[in-house]
Design goal:
The protein has six helices and no strands. By secondary structure, the chain is an all-alpha fold.
Length: 136
């Protein structure tokens, strides 16, 4: 009975430390990885702070991981409207103005499609998402 309690406690402690070492924002919101800056998400900051209160080193590591990956920042939430006569060059100019990066439209990974409406866009994205997950 005593060894069962020790094993359970060890598993709970290992799980807690692993979660803190990974960084709460990285665990809660993996889609936020790669953000450079923005407003700090209070939920992630508080969760990392709780880790800091109980376990100093893992809490510091959790903050470091979340800041390094960008998972601690709230998403930007910006929206953009596509002009009806958009060209690759006009898209590239808009992307450069927003992100500071340009796209090489000749790359193999870039897919250029002519679409008539938003429904076709949703269908195209859904089919590529399914195909992406099926590749070994």
């Amino acid at each position: 009975m005593k060894t069962l309690k020790r094993k359970t406690l060890a598993l709970v402690l290992a799980g807690t430390l692993t979660t803190q070492l990974a960084g709460c924002g990285t665990v809660f919101y993996p889609e936020r990885k790669g953000q450079i800056s923005g407003r700090i998400d209070p939920v992630v900051a508080i969760a990392n702070g709780v880790g800091l209160l109980f376990f100093i080193v893992p809490g510091v590591i959790a903050f470091a991981v979340d800041f390094a990956t960008g998972a601690i920042y709230l998403p930007g939430g910006g929206r953009t409207e596509l002009q009806p006569n958009a060209t690759p060059d006009s898209l590239n100019d808009s992307l450069y103005a927003s992100t500071g990066q340009r796209i090489d439209w000749q790359q193999d990974r870039v897919l250029v499609e002519q679409l008539d409406n938003g429904q076709q866009l949703h269908q195209l994205l859904a089919s590529h998402s399914v195909a992406k997950h099926q590749v070994p």
